[in-house]
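Example record for the data management plan.
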Amino acid sequence: MSSTVNGKPLTEVLALLREVKYPAAKKDKYNYFRIDEYISVFDEVVGIANYLVDYTDFSYSRITTNQEQYTVKCRISILSDDGEVILYRESYGGYTCQYEKNTGKDTNLSNSSNFACHAAFKNAAKRFGIFGAYGKIDRSVDAPSKATRDTKDTQNKKNSILNFVTEGKFEVVDTKDERPVYKLNAYEIVGDVCRDSISQIIFYPNMYSKDAKKMNGYITKCSNSRTKMRIKVQCVAERDSVKQYVFKSFEVAA
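Corresponding structural encoding:
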């Protein structure tokens, strides 16, 4: 049986998939790779005939009274040149329904399944380490120097309790352990002053599930209006002058 994939050893194929690349596209001011960029890399590196994509477990769920989501599991299988599956990775992806204010209808109903599949494909591809961004939600366009990274890594390990006022509703950007990973835009409050620049907070399920009732309450509140929030966070990066935080816990208002 052949141990090559598209004429190359599997180790070389994986190394090529994991080459660090930086996206040129932006969505809502944030960097991201388009679905066609993911597929192009697999077509070129793995080979069109050397990988299979399967979608299963398509489902619908109501996250809160105001949020509904479609999810699906994607498995990407790499085949040897003899047609045997030699490695696969799989992950879930989701699409959150968005409704037109006047009619109440889902604005993307006909494409909801495609959006969920695209998200699942990207997440499965990340498990191969594609673009050198293993498990990351996005990457900055400019790669920082090692000295800068070391300094920031030391600073970013610290948790801080901060006050925010939210801007918009919670958005599902990924899934982890079959539960949604949320993104929330918010303005940091310093003293009695709200900063001009917006920040982004990521809520992972292993953190917010510790106080699910309060989390669901904030999801509902933020879908209707701006909401003040006092939380413990870890600053993980700054991309395009936007601070990136990871949620750690809810705190009692000062």
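Summary line stored alongside the record: The helical segments are 10-17, 35-47, 112-126, 146-156, 205-208, 212-224.
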